[in-house]
Design a protein that fits this description.
It comes from Mesocestoides corti (Flatworm). This protein is of the alpha+beta class and about 280 residues long. It contains nine helices and seven strands; from the N terminus they run βββαββαααββααααα. The radius of gyration is 19 Å and the shape is globular.
Length: about 280
């Protein structure tokens, strides 16, 4: 029997997020307020739970801290992931606010550099994120930026009854995922990072204006890429756009590493100095 202070209390009425497979609610664990990610429709396997528990070992300065993972029969739902609560929400939520439309571009640069640093950390351990996008980058007070849902899509492939249709192609997806939805890799993450940078620099803009999702795979097969944010009235140097274009090379092996991306950002007129210490 666990001690009372280690018990998990879930506040089902206080939802703070949701996605295709999960809902996130506030809770209390070991006398702290936490975020509880619940997967009500997923039946986990032992290997899936083992890999979810691995998330507890990630660097909490770069990734959202995971305190505990509960699986059946420990919890009423199939899986509950107990995480630190990032009080300021996601970058996607931030970009939907009026505040984001007037914040200095240097703040946007800071977001980008901290995501790059987090992804370089994962790259150092050969860990692919598998679903990098603005809703999976979370914010807290004092400029804290952390990555969440690390490796989550890969872990879902280990669930009982997994189907590739769970991962529809979208605007964050690298081209190779259109014909092989589980072709997760750090190079696919690099593509998604480029899209994330575009969305941040355009303060929530769409990377493929006028292109319906069903036409996107053929559009990308013609090696088309998002426009320069500068052409849309936003600040983006030619040097930085060239870096984004390198992230969107059709051949995954021709895309840069995250360490190379950090080195390039540091060269961009000093705007991203000290990126690795962010």
């Amino acid at each position: 029997m666990p001690e009372p202070e280690s018990q998990l209390y879930v506040f089902q009425s206080r939802q703070i997020g949701s996605s295709q497979f999960a809902e996130v609610v506030l809770g209390s664990y070991e006398n702290r307020t936490v975020a509880v990610k619940q997967l009500p429709t997923i039946t986990p396997t032992a290997e899936m739970l083992r890999q979810l528990n691995f998330l507890k070992s990630l660097d909490l300065s770069k990734c959202v801290q995971v305190f505990e993972v509960f699986g059946m029969p420990q919890c009423r739902g199939s899986v509950q992931i107990v995480m630190e609560n990032m009080a300021c929400g996601s970058v996607a939520q931030y970009l939907s606010t009026q505040e984001s439309q007037s914040d200095a571009v240097t703040l946007l640069h800071l977001l980008i550099q901290r995501v790059a640093a987090g992804m370089a950390y994962l790259e150092g351990y050969q860990i692919a994120h598998t679903d990098l996008k603005t809703s999976n980058v979370l914010l807290d007070f004092n400029g804290i930026v952390k990555i969440t849902d690390v490796g989550f899509r890969h872990m879902l492939t280990l669930a009982s009854g997994f189907n590739q249709e769970w991962f529809p192609f979208d605007e964050w997806s690298a081209p190779e995922l259109s014909h092989q939805p589980t072709a997760f890799s750090l190079k696919a993450d690099v593509w998604s990072f480029g899209i994330l940078c575009f969305v941040i620099l355009t303060r929530g803009g769409h990377p493929y204006p006028g292109i319906p999702l069903k036409a996107l795979p053929s559009y990308l097969a013609n090696q088309m890429v998002p426009p320069n944010p500068a052409e849309l009235g936003h600040q983006c140097s030619d040097f930085f756009y060239d870096l984004l274009v390198s992230c969107w090379r059709y051949n995954p092996q021709e895309r840069p590493s995250f360490r190379s991306i950090i080195n390039s950002l540091t060269m961009d007129n000093g705007k991203y100095e000290n990126i690795t210490s962010a």
